[in-house]
Design goal:
279 residues; mainly alpha; I/LWEQ domain; clathrin light chain binding
Length: 279
């Protein structure tokens, strides 16, 4: 019991209420995200023009389409969960069914929270991009995170669903649609970034031989610095993922009040991630 995840330290009879609250909270977060995007669209039309307005509208429209796809996925997932409970509880109450299947219920709660959090993060990243205080890369990462969290929700819902369930088929179709809309956000963000960011003219015709040599050496220094920084960030990413998998393994080991901690990773066999090929 001491090894159970503290975030899920709730009484089993409360699990059913938690599922409904989290799904309602997720739906509310998505509705709020759609409203905020509409407000950003109006603000962008008033405060920008030309290429900037075109880029902002394209990005915000793709974000709106993604939010609508997530909203439909959450609604379909809720219908599937109701179908699962009705077909599996027998003479038991809904609360008793959730309590009996506590690990499955906890998985639904966790997945729902992840979807709502991802939607909120995407809107905040879009807001910063429109205001030119954020990075386009944040939008791309948030889109990937949303695709991952919706896949988690589908997997959690699919565990106890009948293979012939129409709601399951609809949920899988909604998941594919979310992935497509997330890819559209990434594409519109990348194209917008290319349009907005200023490009150097690369005109060196007026430089002297000494000036050219100095610029060349300074550029070489920057390249080496960036390569070293890239290697360090890749090592850091590997360590973060390793810790994430270790924690996830420990959570998955929790069953029937007992826990089997995940084995600690062996440091002796860790390898540095390969460096990207130089152009």
């Amino acid at each position: 019991q001491e090894l159970r995840p503290k975030s899920l330290d709730i009484k089993q009879e409360e699990l059913g209420d938690m599922v409904e609250k989290e799904m309602a909270s997720t739906s509310e977060a998505i509705e709020d995200a759609v409203r905020r995007i509409e407000e950003m669209m109006s603000q962008a039309r008033n405060e920008s023009s030309g290429v900037k307005l075109e880029v902002n509208e394209r990005i915000l429209n793709s974000c709106t389409d993604l939010m609508k796809a997530i909203r439909l996925l959450v609604m379909t997932s809720t219908n599937l969960q109701k179908e699962i409970v009705e077909s599996g509880r027998g003479a038991a109450t809904t609360q008793e069914f959730y309590a009996k299947n506590s690990r499955w219920t906890e998985g639904l709660i966790s997945a729902s929270k992840a979807v709502g959090w991802g939607a909120t993060q995407l809107v905040e990243a879009a807001d910063r991009v429109v205001l030119h205080t954020g990075k386009y890369e944040e939008l791309i990462v948030c889109s990937h995170e949303i695709a991952a969290s919706t896949a988690q929700l589908v997997a959690a819902s699919k565990v106890k669903a009948e293979k012939s369930s129409r709601n399951l088929g609809r949920l899988q179709e909604c998941s594919r649609n979310v992935n497509e809309m997330a890819a559209n956000v990434v594409a519109s963000t990348k194209s917008g970034q290319e349009q907005i960011e200023e490009k150097d003219t690369m005109d060196f015709s007026g430089m002297s031989l000494i000036k050219l040599k100095k610029e060349e050496m300074e550029t070489q220094v920057k390249v080496l610095e960036l390569e070293k920084r890239l290697e360090g960030e890749r090592v850091r990413l590997g360590e973060l993922r390793k810790q994430h998998y270790a924690l996830a393994g420990a959570y998955d080991a929790v069953e029937d009040g007992e826990a089997k901690p995940a084995p600690a990773p062996r440091r002796g066999i860790l390898k540095k991630p390969p460096l990207a090929q130089k152009p």
